[in-house]
Write a structure and sequence with these properties.
globular, Rossmann fold, two-stranded antiparallel sheet, ten-stranded mixed β-sheet, alpha/beta, 12 strands
């Protein structure tokens, strides 16, 4: 998918799970929420996925800006702060897989090596159900999970990348890494640098573009989706 077809895509009917602090249905940048769940640190589920921190709503709004016709699902793992446990993260991803999400946005990560095996297993479960996990590969030189694992669409932060494009680079391990802007969707009257920003929004910006690809390639494997994304990117020649 190249050119006009890619640009015209809107992510129509693509089921996207945002694993984060929930979503505020009443925010003007959120036209609708198709459903969701909240998962406590002990893995218990309940239905209060209202965002009280603002982060998940901003992530969702950034995705919707690029792909306005997705079916958005909120998977809340952050309540009072932007931190949770490994069990909750795995449970959130499993919920998304069980509910047939096509894209799982993880604007988060952990450097805890003890979770590597557990997270790799849930990524493989996602792949087996044709769900695509998008996450940050690193921040400030620290390797993150699940973003650095096999089978994940890897995203890195690029402050020089315009918000209306993304870039791809071949990493030293032969895998494609996508680089995107760390600025969130603009708020009228608020300078970009004063708004929420960081690697979370690089992931969200990339997810929006990925949803456009999935709209027209619903049965494509993660490798095929990565190739299509790379073909449509402004490609770097240097290595990550």
């Amino acid at each position: 998918m190249r050119g006009e077809r890619f640009e015209a895509a809107t992510g129509r009917s693509v089921r996207v799970a945002v694993v984060d602090s929930g979503v505020n249905r009443k925010h003007p940048h959120i036209p609708s929420v198709s459903g969701g769940v909240a998962i406590d640190t002990d893995g218990r589920q309940h239905q209060d996925y209202l965002d009280r921190l603002g982060h998940g709503t901003a992530v969702a709004a950034t995705i919707i800006e690029k792909a306005p016709d997705i079916e958005l699902y909120a998977v809340k793992v952050f309540e009072k702060e932007l931190a949770t446990g490994g069990d909750a993260l795995v449970a959130a991803m499993d919920w998304a897989i069980e509910h047939q999400m096509q894209v799982i946005n993880l604007s988060l990560g952990t450097s805890n090596l003890e979770l590597e095996v557990q997270l790799q297993a849930v990524v493989e479960r996602a792949i087996s159900q044709n769900a695509i996990v998008v996450s940050a590969i690193e921040e400030d030189g620290t390797r993150w999970f699940p973003g650095s694992l096999s089978g994940v669409v890897r995203v890195a932060l690029d402050w020089d990348c315009p918000r209306n494009e993304y870039r791809s680079v071949m990493a030293s391990d032969g895998q494609t890494v996508f680089r995107a802007s760390g600025f969130a969707r603009p708020i009228p009257g608020v300078p970009l640098e004063r708004n929420l920003k960081g690697i979370s929004f690089a992931v969200a910006n990339l997810t929006g573009y990925l949803a456009r690809v999935v709209e027209h390639h619903t049965e494509a494997s993660i490798d095929e989706v990565v190739k299509i994304l790379a073909t449509n990117s402004a490609t770097y020649s240097n290595q990550s």
